[in-house]
Amino acid sequence: MTNNGEKVRVKVDIFGQDYTVIGDKSSDHILKVSQEVDNLMKKIHQNNTHMPQVKIAVLAALNLADELTKTREDYKWLLDIIEDEKKSNKVSE
Amino acid sequence: MTNNGEKVRVKVDIFGQDYTVIGDKSSDHILKVSQEVDNLMKKIHQNNTHMPQVKIAVLAALNLADELTKTREDYKWLLDIIEDEKKSNKVSE
Questions:
Q1: CA B85, CA B66: separation in Å to the nearest integer?
Q2: Could you give the angle at the alpha carbon of A67 between the alpha carbons of A51 and B76, nearest 5°?
Q3: How far from A13 is each of A16, A36, A74, B42, CA to CA, in Å?
Q4: Is-contact B32 B21, C-beta < 8 A?
Q5: Biggest alpha carbon distance in chain B?
Q6: A51 near B CB under 8 A
Q7: How far is CA A92 from CA A23, A85, A87, in A?
Q8: Model ipTM value
Q9: Would the pLDDT of B1 be above 50?
Q10: Looking at CA atoms only, how far is residue A17 from chain B in angstroms?
Q11: Handedness of CA B23, B28, B32, B37 (dihedral sign)
């Protein structure tokens, strides 16, 4: 996914505003990530049509941070399974 | 982490604004997630002192979506290792 260490600049539209995102990943990755934020903000707006844009963006960030915490916990859980498996294999050898 | 199906309401401060976050997780979890967003927005602000608040929040959301994509890929990678391990154990049985 990296781009040989070079920075990539991608113009994206998030909730009707243009942003230039600079990253070290592929433009496809940047577009995918931007689209996730755009979709989430549109979804929040649909359910709260009078909500100011800054609040919509903060709520999107909160949703993503919540999902990130959950995914980190799931990752840690799988890692523990693999570690336990390794230990029990060592014992049975 | 769940709260017996009851909704929890927690008042949090994110980048100087009060938000009432309603969720089905513990108040500790909501506070931790809110703090992650608050810290990230403050960090972005430190590096871009003239950036409007809405842009800071969108950039925070983009950072979190990027991290989430990466963590989901890492999770999928571990899951594949476990699946491969299971298959090879079946073959060797």
A1: 29
A2: 145
A3: 6, 11, 31, 23
A4: no
A5: 64
A6: no
A7: 47, 11, 9
A8: 0.87
A9: no
A10: 9
A11: positive
Contacts of B71 in chain A (CB under 8 A): 68, 71-72, 75
Quote the distance between the C-alpha of residue B84 and its chain's center.
29
Chains A and B form CB pairs within 8 A to the count of 112
Mean pLDDT, chain B, whole residue set? 90
Question: Which DSSP category does B2 fall into?
Answer: B
Residue type, B85: E
pTM of the model: 0.87
Q: How many CB atoms lie within 10 A of CB B30?
A: 21
Strands B17-23 and A17-23: unpaired
CA end-to-end distance (rounded Å), chain A? 39
DSSP state of B23: E
Identify the residue with better confidence: B7 or A4: B7
In DSSP terms, which residues pair with B8 in a beta bridge? B23
